[in-house]
Write a structure and sequence with these properties.
With 569 residues, the chain is of the alpha+beta class. The strands form 9 sheets. Strands 12-11-25-24-23 form a 5-stranded antiparallel beta sheet, sandwiched between helices.
């Protein structure tokens, strides 16, 4: 029975095929030449609805970091623009259309619109985008204008105008030059440029170049377009938390969030930020590139954060024990003419090593550093890779950081306090924190997971192999010291609502500036920590330029971000 049914169906299909073949042959003989020529001559005018033909950049969850927002734009077909009362000549028609559209658009001169229309018309009359970010009243005016050959339709914006992730993403050139000029856009320009999504506005024209009525503007999605892309380690949810916290509390500074285990960058932000659509040259003129600097990758004195490395080295080398006692009178005296003060002018008095760490006592750490000595401290600078500039997927164009300790006790003392001779980036500090939180295992941080080029070839960057740089025992002791700092020391303002946090505050001296008739000291303030303390998952470093103290400026930012992460992750 089944075989007979199949045979029957085959006969039906064969009959239909023969009928269609005969029909096609008839039309080719009788009417085919004209129809074939007309179909061959028929062509499309089209324009992508995204701003630039570039591959997209995604976060770790494949959420868009570029092309994630839309606005309304004005699209035109220059050869088809007309209205019932318009002059008949082409030049007059375009000039009149420019005047009408200028009246519809609040901030665009008619001469600018006319030039764009004339250039597009001379180039073959393709669809062009005249203006973006239309207001509702502008859209209504265009719809009410009576013009044929114009439409208000979506455009996919490449960037957010609030500066979200701007220092990492970078920006592209203006006008016809859409190549990457900064950030990931520049580093991966060869992969990202020229990639199309297939989301287009299309106009169908006949052999005479006349637009077919009803097909003047239509949306089309082609699935076979080449789609190159870049996939980052960034978690856009965490990035949002970081940027929101910075908007409210950090005028100048940086934040880095690392995954403790993988060493992947989950968020990285710098303030002030910038609008990628702004006039970049004007920004440079106004502030000398300060706004464009990615402070997360710029060097600073780390201040007392560097005591984490000093404590780790001293414990590993048995230059200090937990039971050791110190006395702080308010300064460390090298001679009658040379001393280094503690941040607590009256001194801390007698205190244990854990208390010296938690209270960030300068004289105590100078003594610890002198016990350790210069050469052994420099050995641990190398072991921790603290000056390593590596960020997998994001190549730095120069070396920013260094630890240069001159011979002599005062130079070593200043270095132990993270001042003279020590310049590190917030990312490198985050790497240090992640190493301690990961029980002494270091690996280079990463920013890019993989890329896909226009040929569909996927290139994975992966993560670096881990290296045990200090013993697990020492790392766990330092973790406990950082917990004590949050519970009993200078880091109390970083305490979290549901889990235990661990960290270290710092305030680094950057020099004296004159404000009016008065001089004041410029301080950069820090908090660097990890959480949950019992099973570390995330490391966060906050640096605030021109602040008052790490406890007042940076620790509350850490707290806000960490609490937010606990809510969403």
């Amino acid at each position: 029975m089944i075989k007979r049914r199949i045979a029957g169906l085959m006969c039906v299909f064969l009959a239909v095929f023969l009928f269609l073949s005969a029909s096609v042959a008839y039309y080719q003989l009788v009417k085919g030449p004209g129809l074939a020529r007309e179909a061959a001559a028929m062509r499309n005018k089209k324009i992508e609805i995204k701003e630039w033909s570039r591959g997209e950049i995604y976060d770790r969850n494949y959420l868009l970091l570029t092309g994630s927002t839309a606005s309304t734009a004005l699209y035109c077909l220059p050869r088809d623009i007309k209205a019932s009362s318009m002059p008949s000549t082409e030049d007059q028609r375009i000039a009149e259309a420019a005047k009408i559209l200028s009246a519809c658009l609040d901030h665009t001169e008619s001469t600018e619109i006319r030039l764009k229309l004339e250039q597009a018309n001379a180039a073959g009359g393709s669809i062009i985008r005249i203006a973006s970010d239309l207001e509702q009243q502008e859209i209504q005016a265009i719809n009410d204008s009576g013009l044929i050959g114009v439409i208000a339709a979506p455009v996919l914006k490449r960037y957010r105008e609030d500066g979200f992730c701007a220092h990492l993403l970078g920006y592209v050139g203006k006008g016809e030059d859409s190549s990457g000029k900064a950030g990931l856009e520049k580093l991966y320009n060869d992969i990202l440029e020229g990639s199309q999504t297939g989301q287009e506005i299309v106009s169908v024209q006949d052999a005479r170049g006349i637009t077919i009525q009803g097909l003047m503007f239509r949306m089309r999605q082609e699935q076979d377009k080449e789609k190159s892309c870049l996939v980052l380690t960034i978690d856009s949810r965490v990035q949002e938390l970081v940027e929101k916290a910075m908007n409210g509390k950090v005028a100048k500074g940086a934040v880095v969030v690392l995954d403790v285990n993988s060493k992947e960058v989950l968020a990285m932000a710098s303030r002030p930020t910038f609008n990628p659509y702004a006039d970049i040259e004007q920004i440079i003129i106004e502030d000398g590139r300060s706004t464009l600097i990615n402070r997360a990758l710029s060097r600073y004195h780390p201040g007392s954060i560097f005591k984490i490395l000093v404590a780790s080295a001293a414990l590993e080398e048995k230059a200090v024990e937990l039971e050791d006692k110190f006395f702080c009178s308010g300064s460390y005296e090298f001679s009658q003419d040379l001393s280094i003060s503690c941040w607590k002018e009256e001194g801390h008095g007698k205190l244990s090593f854990p208390e010296a760490f938690a209270m960030s006592c300068n004289p105590s750490f100078i003594e610890i550093g002198l016990r350790l000595n210069r050469n052994r401290l420099l050995d641990y600078v190398e072991k921790f890779h603290i000056t390593d500039e590596t960020l997998l997927g994001y190549n730095s164009d120069r070396d920013y950081s260094y630890v240069n300790i001159e011979p002599g006790k005062p130079a070593l003392a200043n270095a132990c306090l993270g001042q003279q001779g020590v310049m590190l980036t917030p990312l490198q500090i985050a790497s240090l924190i992640a190493t301690i939180a990961d029980n002494g295992q270091w690996a280079a941080p990463s920013l890019v997971q993989y890329s896909i080029n226009k040929q569909g070839i996927k290139t994975s960057l992966g993560t670096a192999d881990k290296e045990q740089v200090i013993s697990e025992k020492t790392a766990r002791i330092v973790q406990d010291l950082m917990i004590k700092t949050v519970n009993d020391g200078t880091g109390k303002t970083a305490a979290l609502k549901t889990v235990q946090a661990a960290g270290k505050t710092a305030t680094s001296q950057e020099g004296i500036v004159t404000d009016g008739d008065e001089e004041r000291e410029v301080l950069n303030t820090w908090f660097a920590g990890f959480f949950p303390a019992d099973k570390p998952r995330w490391a966060i470093v906050v640096m605030v330029e021109d602040g008052t103290s790490g406890a007042a400026d940076a620790a509350p930012v850490f707290k806000e971000i960490a609490n937010g992460m606990l809510d969403i992750l």
